[in-house]
Each structure stands twice: as C-alpha cells, then as structure tokens.
Amino acid sequence: MSDRLLADALVLVHLLFIVFVVLGGVLVLRWPRLALAHLPAVCWGALVELTGRECPLTPLENRWRQAAGEAGYRGSFIEHYLLPIIYPAELTRSMQFTLGAVVIVVNCSLYGWLVYRGHTRSKQTSGLRPERRT
User: Which residue ranges run through the membrane (predicted)?
Assistant: First the structure.
C-alpha cells in the first residue's frame, strides 16, 4: 500500500474516531457495553482539545504524506472534503475549548440519559415482581 493511501486511510480513521467521540454515546444507548471503548475515547478527545495537545495520528499522517512526496493536503477526495473538518485553518485556542466543552456536554447528557433510563427500568422491573409471602 502506498504512503499516500495510508495517509488517506488514516484521515478517514481520524474522522471516524472524532465522530465516535462526539456521538458514540448514542450507540451506547443501544449497546451499553460499548461504553468500555467510548468513555476512554471521550476522555482522550476532551484532553486533546482542552490541553491543545496534538493527536498522535497527525504526525503519523504527515510522515506518510512526506514519504509519498507530498507537501500538504491536496489532491484526493478525502483530503479535499474531510481534512478541513478535522484540521480547520481558522482553529483557535478558544474554539478548541468550545469543542472540548461540546464533547463533554454531549456525552454527559447521553450518559445521564442512559443512567436515568437504566434506573427507571430497574424500578419498573422491581415493581413488577410479585411479593412472596412466607
């Protein structure tokens, strides 16, 4: 596989990870065990945005692009349409804080709903059990 294809595939994986971080809680509502993968992903996404760290996927992608002889993000469909979403040119520090806050608020809301729903179901289930008389 060429370095360019590896870099393009990594951009796609990066985008899917971001979508999973932001909206994966919706999947957790359906498959609660997915929280074991989603919660660490949310923590990592919030940490990267709130601290301004660079995701380790970014330097790897850049290395593959340089190995392919590219100077920047130009050319393919993935690069043209997906990279501006992941790496917006006008991204500021305050925007990073906002993105981190959005990740936290969205996921806290989804997990709060999940806990509430589970609590409500357990109350309903325990209320439906007939009492035993001894």
Answer: 12-31, 97-116
Distances (CA, A) of 121 to 30, 40, 127, 131: 14, 26, 10, 18
Query: Would 80 be classed as within a structural domain?
Result: yes
* 31-59 pLDDT per residue, tens: 989 999 999 999 998 888 888 787 888 88
In angstroms, the CA 18 to CA 42 distance is 9
Residue 117, domain member (yes or no): yes
Distance, CA of 70 to chain centre: 28
Cα–Cα–Cα angle for 9, 60, 95, rounded to 5 degrees: 90
H-helix segments, 31-92: 35-51, 57-67, 77-81, 83-86
Structural domains in the chain (count): 1
Quick: pLDDT tens for 80-115. 556 677 777 777 888 888 888 988 998 899 889 888
* 134 falls within a domain: no
- The DSSP element (H or E) to which 107 belongs, if any, is helix 93-128
Please tell me whether the overall predicted TM-score, pTM, comes out greater than 0.90 for this model: no
